[in-house]
């Protein structure tokens, strides 16, 4: 599908109607879904109704915003009033939220047209979308491969042109890693910038909602619409939101000598050589565009993964205690007593990965282990944050690969959780420190699979980050490639 700006121009010039644009997305969904499976459900009637309202506004001569009439897909862990929200889990298979998440409510108010809810790893736990209780999403570039995860459905939908943009959530990399695997732009904002009200909680101190798009500008437009203070989220930052969109300058030369730091520890061992070569080349493009490149060290970066796998499961074990068969969703129907009902509901309602994490989290939080694991992990989290602070005293933006490899084959890592966890080696530290990060397409491997470069900003440094990402995009052609054969 075309860019937001192009579609907006067509709408206001009355060259196309919002209903026609929505129908294009719905037709594409109908054509591709049998193979791709990015959506858990398509909300066609509601989408067409929203589109008609936008058309009515245009015909009344009213002004419309950039997102009005733009087809958008939403990860199925954001509550949508009256529309099933399963979080990719059997335990929420019949959950119809009685309220709307702040982000989807803001998008609806902006006139964006929600075409459906996308597939995801159950409770956002995973890196391949294979942990969904419902279906396995294919990577549009190679249907045998995974789209990444946990927001794999949202990434695949944008890459395949089933929606113009989409929303995902990122706790340890779940926007940036699938963006990298699917050849699209994915953005994780500073913790607290986007309201989490109505986002089904996985690990609350790490979760952030963010946009996917085919260009940095599309992502900036979507971020603009969802960012901002929300009294319904106690961790929401109460700060003015800058204009991300008009701040996008085409050249870094305009800002002479912006310093970008290459994170030394993310290169070398464990990194696919073609990813290394491609990202190194991309960094030289940044240099040619006017950035000053220097190597920086984040020595504690490598403790990110073990730290995350203590903190995230701990928070998850507490957050997921609410699924007990009483309050929401699935309930085991034939229990003889309350305890059996709790046990069988959770045994049958949760998948293997979710159970693994609830067990890990319960263990590390238990009396006697709390100090050794949870408290220690919180201390290491601070050390990782200090590494970033030190790096940011030398440079303004950090750069590294988004993921150590390109998209792997479905089934390749499902038997080995540890190798799956390694997919997020480079994205997790960014969540632990609460920083903004973006993945931009920067090339392909020898099998034609997309590669992503991750740029990391200072806290609330989204404007600068988007500006650098946009400069890179304008200097290259990678974002213009589309998956063939689907
Ligand atoms: N893949 C990581 C995990 O499995 C990150 C998930 C996420 O960001 N939601 O937890």
TrEMBL record:
EC number of this enzyme: 6.3.5.7
Top-level taxon: Bacteria
SUPFAM superfamilies, A to Z: Amidase signature (AS) enzymes
A GO cellular component annotation in the UniProt record: glutamyl-tRNA(Gln) amidotransferase complex
Chain ranges of the Amidase domain: 20-466
Description of how the protein assembles with itself and partners: Heterotrimer of A, B and C subunits.
Family: Belongs to the amidase family. GatA subfamily.
Protein role: Allows the formation of correctly charged Gln-tRNA(Gln) through the transamidation of misacylated Glu-tRNA(Gln) in organisms which lack glutaminyl-tRNA synthetase. The reaction takes place in the presence of glutamine and ATP through an activated gamma-phospho-Glu-tRNA(Gln).
Protein name, UniProt field: Glutamyl-tRNA(Gln) amidotransferase subunit A
Native source organism of the sequence: Planktothrix agardhii
């Amino acid at each position: 599908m075309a860019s937001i700006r192009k579609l907006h121009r067509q709408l206001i010039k009355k060259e196309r109607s919002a209903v026609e644009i929505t129908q294009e997305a719905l037709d594409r969904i109908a054509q591709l879904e049998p193979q791709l499976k990015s959506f858990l459900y398509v909300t066609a009637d509601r989408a067409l109704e929203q589109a008609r309202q936008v058309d009515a506004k245009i015909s009344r001569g009213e002004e419309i915003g950039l997102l009005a009439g733009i087809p958008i897909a939403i990860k199925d862990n954001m509550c949508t009033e009256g529309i099933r929200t399963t979080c990719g889990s059997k335990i929420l298979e019949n959950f119809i939220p009685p309220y709307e998440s702040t982000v989807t409510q803001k998008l609806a108010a902006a006139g964006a047209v929600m075409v459906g809810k996308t597939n995801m790893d159950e409770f956002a736990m995973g890196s391949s979308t294979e942990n969904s209780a419902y279906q396995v999403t294919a990577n549009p570039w190679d249907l045998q491969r995974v789209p990444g995860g946990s927001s794999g459905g949202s990434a695949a939908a944008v890459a395949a042109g089933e929606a113009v943009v989409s929303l995902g959530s990122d706790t340890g990399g779940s926007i940036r890693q699938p963006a990298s695997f699917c050849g699209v732009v994915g953005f994780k904002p500073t913790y607290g910038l986007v309201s989490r009200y109505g986002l089904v909680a996985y690990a609350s101190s790490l979760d952030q909602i963010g946009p996917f798009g085919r260009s940095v500008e599309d992502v900036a437009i979507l971020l603009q619409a969802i960012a901002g203070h929300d009294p319904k989220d106690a961790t929401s930052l109460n700060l003015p939101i800058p204009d991300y969109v008009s701040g996008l300058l085409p050249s870094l030369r305009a800002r002479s000598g912006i310093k970008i730091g290459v994170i030394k520890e993310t290169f070398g061992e464990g990194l696919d050589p073609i990813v290394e070569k491609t990202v190194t080349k991309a960094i030289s493009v940044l240099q040619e565009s006017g950035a000053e490149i220097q190597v920086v060290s984040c020595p504690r970066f490598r403790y990110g993964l073990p730290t995350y796998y203590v903190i995230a499961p701990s928070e998850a074990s507490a957050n997921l205690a609410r699924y007990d068969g009483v309050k929401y969703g699935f309930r085991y129907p034939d229990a003889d007593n309350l305890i059996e009902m709790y046990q069988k509901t959770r045994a049958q309602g949760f998948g293997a990965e979710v159970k693994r994490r609830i067990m890990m989290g319960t263990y590390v939080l238990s009396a006697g282990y709390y100090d050794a694991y949870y408290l220690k992990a919180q201390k290491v989290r601070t050390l990782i944050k200090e590494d970033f602070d030190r790096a940011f005293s030398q440079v303004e933006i950090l750069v590294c690969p988004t993921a150590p490899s390109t998209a792997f084959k479905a089934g390749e890592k499902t038997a080995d959780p540890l190798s799956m966890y390694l997919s997020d080696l480079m994205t997790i530290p960014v969540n632990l420190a609460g920083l903004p990060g973006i993945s931009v397409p920067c090339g392909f491997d020898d099998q034609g699979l997309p590669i992503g470069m991750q740029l990391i900003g200072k806290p609330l440094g989204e404007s600068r980050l988007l500006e650098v990402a946009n400069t890179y995009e304008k200097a290259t052609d990678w974002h213009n490639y589309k998956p063939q054969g689907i």
